[in-house]
Amino acid sequence: MPLAALLETVDVAALVIGHLDAKSVVALGRTSRDVRAAQRSAIHDSPQLLVSAASNACMLTKAQMMGWFALCGAEADELPRGRYLRRAGGYYYLYGQPAFDNVLGTHLAGVAEWEARLAARGRPVRRRKRPPPAAPLHAGRMVAACR
Length: 147
What we know:
The protein has ten helices and three strands, in the order αααααβααββααα.
């Protein structure tokens, strides 16, 4: 059996997700559509796999936390985190096990909500059309308006 076919099995995907970090799970999911579908199905059957993969990384940055759990910035700010000073100034945040355990109960009601957030993040944002720019003023009018 080829390795790709093995990774497309939901049971194997569940085992793999439980032992890889979130970044590696995402990279593995990019190998094929069927592998990604098996991973999603495994997570759907056991939402705790999201927490396990995050825990395998020990710590996640705010951007990684938001990406893996499909959170917005305000939701990530509410989770327990460590604040560290950057060399060039400013701060960065690292999230650990307390945040991983907390996210499923407080910000994500379940896997269906996680999948909906991922789907919404993939859709393009519809923006309102801007009104056409105003007609430029002639030099004479501009001078008259300044007097």
